[in-house]
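Z., the sequence and structure:
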Amino acid sequence: MNAKLTLSFNEEVINKAKKYAEENDISLSRLIEFLLTKVTSTDYQSLEEYPIADWVNLIAEGKAEYQTKRSRKSAKKEFFDSKK
């Protein structure tokens, strides 16, 4: 069963991901589904162990920085501040 999910990304990341998906003959939805399946199918100990690190590096500008030690409230505030 398929379900809809709304996500927000940096526009440039979206454009690069769309191009990557098109070049690999896969829809962006199926690409994200594949990546999330990979991430959730194994017990990874940290974000750096995720199998998508190489893919993220292909479409990201600069090195990816993971922030895991912050409260949900501060993460929400940071997200909404970035949209101003």
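Residues 9-61 form one domain. The chain has four helices and no strands.

Let me know what you think.
H.
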